[in-house]
Amino acid sequence: MASTPQILCELSLKILAPLAAIGFLVVLTILLSLAISQNASIPKVRQRGTPVHILVVLGSGGHTAEMLYMLENTFKSSIYTYRTYVVSSGDALSAQKAVEFEDTFARKEESDNNAKDYNIVTIPRARRVHQSYLTAPYSTLRCFWACLLVLGGRHPAQRRLPAQFQSSHPDIIITNGPAVAVCMLLAAKLIRSFIFVSRWAAGRGSKPDISRLRTVYVESWARVRTLSTSGFLLLPVADKFLVQWPTLAGRRAWWGMKKTEYCGWVVV
Amino acid sequence: MKLCFVTVGATASFEKLVQAVLQESFLAELEKYNFTHLLVQYGKGGQHIFEKYATERVKSSDRAHGLDIGGFDLRPSLTEYLRMVQEDSSKHQELGMVISHAGKAPVQFWITKSMESNRFSGTGSILAALRASVPLVVVPNPDLADNHQQELADELACQGYAVIGNVADLPSTVGKAANRRERAPFFLNASKNSLDVPLSDELSFVD
């Protein structure tokens, strides 16, 4: 008759081994799909002059300032016809800065009805100051859920997009690394994988379609030789990872992944 | 007017820097380079030092090397002060200089404070000064600087965008920064990078 340790050993083999195998497969699938997604080239099908919806993730203080400096040099209302700004709850100043930015932008471009062309959405923080780590997973999930809603255009604070937009998803997402950016970019990835799977299931896999929810991460100008925590986490996720110092160029999450690109100082 | 604007940030006190810019030797050096005004954003921790200095100055009733000295604890934006450092002949302004701290408080503290204070966090004022194209001295706070802020300061100094200052020997940096006018990389207006190309890439336009 087998002794108790032997039975336990057999049991654990029967249960743990398949679990480990499944876990390994899941991790492998995720890693592979991240690699495929990052390296896939996107079909060039977007016509110039068609409406573009850009989603800007603003963080607290320093991140917001840098982001708005960048957009100052970049934005043209002829390209980015609709802008959604995402701020964290409790960060009224970033929201105010975004409004000021839009006002000066409108003055510069001399467009009169631009108040209709942008939207500011406030979403809950992933982890508030001094919040217990026990409840942090819950609030992070709440933040993630809010990101999913925003990306699907279903957040209560969002207005309806102008009629010329065919999709409620933003075309492009830009961030420079506040904590909420991690949630936002992962949410975008999740939605994209759903779109990919459903399209594949419907047998439209080969038809080129306009890519939406593309993500651009710009590492903070203050990072010279080391990536920030958000940057480190998003390195395998972002479609384009830009750095402002040559020392950070060419980094990648792991072998086979896309490398970071040096773009110069875009904040000055 | 030729202004030397000093900012110590809001989140952590940098009393050593406030002390250093109120020293006789530093003021004398400012006078030597024709500065007329000294403005100190001294933060919460520096208030008592600045006020003590101000009352002593009044008592001794001599003008501090011909300098007008002013100070405040915090303001939501530095922009207007940076503008006072820029050259502007219509306002009789000569090109001054900015002395900025580099280093932020421990993360927890940094998040607790209101958003206003975040904007002062080290790199923010450095970037603002660079954008204003004014001579810049960066003084890392030895007690607080994160590794990456020290790296930033080193790299900026290495490429000639800023001078690294040390609270123990601040007077010597005045000359180094004030003589920087002619140095080309100091003025960034020439090349403007933008995100046009990378964003267009991702938008996958037909052309």
Automatic annotation (TrEMBL), chain A:
This is UDP-N-acetylglucosamine transferase subunit ALG14. GO terms for biological process: dolichol-linked oligosaccharide biosynthetic process. The chain crosses the membrane at residues 15-36. It is found in: Endoplasmic reticulum membrane; Nucleus membrane. Belongs to the ALG14 family. GO terms for cellular component: nuclear membrane; UDP-N-acetylglucosamine transferase complex. It comes from Penicillium canariense. Keywords: Endoplasmic reticulum, Membrane, Transferase, Transmembrane, Transmembrane helix. It comes from the Eukaryota. It is a single-pass membrane protein. Heterodimer with ALG13 to form a functional enzyme. Pfam families: Alg14. Involved in protein N-glycosylation. Essential for the second step of the dolichol-linked oligosaccharide pathway. Anchors the catalytic subunit ALG13 to the ER. One of its GO terms (molecular function) is N-acetylglucosaminyldiphosphodolichol N-acetylglucosaminyltransferase activity.
UniProtKB/TrEMBL annotation, chain B:
One of its GO terms (cellular component) is UDP-N-acetylglucosamine transferase complex. Its EC number is 2.4.1.141. One of its GO terms (molecular function) is N-acetylglucosaminyldiphosphodolichol N-acetylglucosaminyltransferase activity. GO terms for biological process: dolichol-linked oligosaccharide biosynthetic process. It is an enzyme of class 2 (transferase). Keywords: Endoplasmic reticulum, Glycosyltransferase, Transferase. Pfam families: Glyco_tran_28_C. It comes from the Eukaryota. It is found in: Endoplasmic reticulum. InterPro entries: Glyco_trans_28_C, UDP-GlcNAc_transferase. Residues 4-104, 121-174 form the Glycosyl transferase family 28 C-terminal domain. Belongs to the glycosyltransferase 28 family. Involved in protein N-glycosylation. Essential for the second step of the dolichol-linked oligosaccharide pathway. This is UDP-N-acetylglucosamine transferase subunit ALG13. The gene is ALG13.
